[in-house]
Amino acid sequence: MSDITVVHLMRHGEVANPDGILYGRLAGYHLSDLGRRMADRVAEHLATRDVTHVGASPLERAQETATPIAKAHGLDLATDARLIEADNVFQGKTFGVGDGALKRPENWKHLVNPFKPSWGEPYVDQVVRMMGALDAAKDAARGHEAVLVSHQLPIWIVRSYVERRRLWHDPRRRQCTLASLTTFTYQGDKIVSVGYSEPARDLVPPHLLAGAKPVKGKDKAFGA
């Protein structure tokens, strides 16, 4: 058996969210038609890879993204609660570019410490659970490949930790586009490289691509 194992952390596809809600861990948010196309595209991209384990966050959008990948490889889909979206006090609200949220006094108490952060699940806690999910997938697929579907912030945080970057950051600078793959290669039990790819890039609206400049009225809460 090879001592090289590959674990792909995938961000889910686009979500149907016409009201621009920061949906966080709320139930009932499913992939849009475009999001399903993104999921199918990545399943096609990975169809010839040596994938022996597929897991996902318990949230619907992640489950729906992972399903065609598991199906393409004849695998059961494993649910791992450690892959869930980060908790956020603004869940269920609109909170984005141009909506005035930062000017509302009732929100200020949640914005006092961007380093922790004070508005949600601590970055360190996200690292612990995401590293646990990565290691479990590595063990399940040892010598082969695994795919785990999660959410933008936890993926970016665990990548930042592995690459030895600070955990606090400008959200606009996350390299984690919808349906992207952040790939961790293990030699034995050690991560030796991290890669990034966007198999469905041509399907992603330009303002939602990694590094795109936020557009007023279009970036309220998409694709967490």
Automatic annotation (TrEMBL):
EC number in record: 3.1.3.-
One GO MF term attached to the UniProt entry: hydrolase activity
Enzyme class: hydrolase
SUPFAM superfamilies, per the entry: Phosphoglycerate mutase-like
Pfam (any one): His_Phos_1
Domain of life the protein comes from: Bacteria
PANTHER family assigned to the protein according to its UniProt record, in alphabetical order: BROAD-SPECIFICITY PHOSPHATASE YOR283W-RELATED, PHOSPHOGLYCERATE MUTASE
Name of the protein in question: Histidine phosphatase family protein
Species annotation: Streptomyces neyagawaensis
Species classification: Bacteria, Bacillati, Actinomycetota, Actinomycetes, Kitasatosporales
